[in-house]
Amino acid sequence: MARLIVDTPGGTYPVHIGRGVLKELRRTMARLEPTGAVVVADASVRAIAQAAAKHLKAARVKNAIYVVPGGERSKSLAGLAGLLAFLERQRIDRGGCIVAVGGGTVGDLAGMAASTWLRGIRYIEVPTTLLAMVDSSIGGKTGVNGVRMKNAIGTFWQPSAVISDLACLDTLPRNRYREAFAEVVKYAVAMDRGLFDVLHRESARLTAGDQDALEDVIERCATAKALVVARDERDRGPRAILNYGHTAAHALEAASRFRISHGRAVALGMRIAANIAFALGLCSERLVDAQDELLTTYGLRDEHPRVSLDRMMAAIPTDKKARRGRVAWVLPRRIGHAVIGQDVPVRLVRRVVRGAIA
Ligand code: GLY
After folding, report:
1. N or C: which end of the chain has fewer CB within 10 A?
2. In order of start, what are the domains of the chain with their CATH numbers?
3. How high does pLDDT run on average in the chain?
4. 176 C-alpha vs ligand 1 centroid, how far in Å?
């Protein structure tokens, strides 16, 4: 079992990682002493939500379960309104808290509700997907989608604890497990050379879901994220490193009308970013190949999706990190180190993107 601390101006909190750590909810309740709680859960993890509710009950915290209907579609202002109305019906007061059980969608929605209900109540993240364990559950970004733009409406609101129980991954569909490795490779290439070596060495154990290897990898990713968030909670500078691969990925998701999963889009986005870096003389061809090989090892093959080049190029300047149409790329220099805020000629982007799609 691992425990690390995230320390930000907006809050300091523990991240518990390991098999069976869901029971940490009891100790967390003893620390927070909430006046009541709502467990906000994804419909696919009802059993985990019920287990969480039992721990709350054992800690004498009155609670109710709110099952988020409709997955990603609920990550909207209408979905938020539904959840806020539930908090009101449950008479959650300022001393109350939310426990978010699910993937990034539920975490973002529940966090947004926590940050706005009565101008802010506490919440606890119980991520049930590998993607949420290594990324979205840490760092306090909450939000819902706008009409066209993903995560357009949101807040920074740090959770009071993150509880990543590896047992939650037992029921995670294989493809979702595999695709989370795009974000894991992101940390390795952009920030952590040691993690890159671990991913190489332990690929057989990790692809098979070996718990010890997985705990180590989740801890490394969470530590990398905690360090970045501690330096730049509000995403004004260094936090942009976490956007490695995401500039092209978000454009690809938009151009494909979200038919391409986030993991596949990030994998392709990192291939595009590395090829741009190589063309600019920022990194070696060896890095491009090493990243490509590692992604392929984790089942994220270099498949060229069928999306329109024009549509994708049009979507790139709408990236949330762009200012006046100027896109700030995150580009790798060497394994374990990337640079942020890079300007890239549009012609070069177009050439590389053309080579990456059908
Ligand atoms: N997922 C990127 C961030 O938290 O900043």
Report:
1. C
2. 2-170 (3.40.50.1970), 175-357 (1.20.1090.10)
3. 95
4. 19
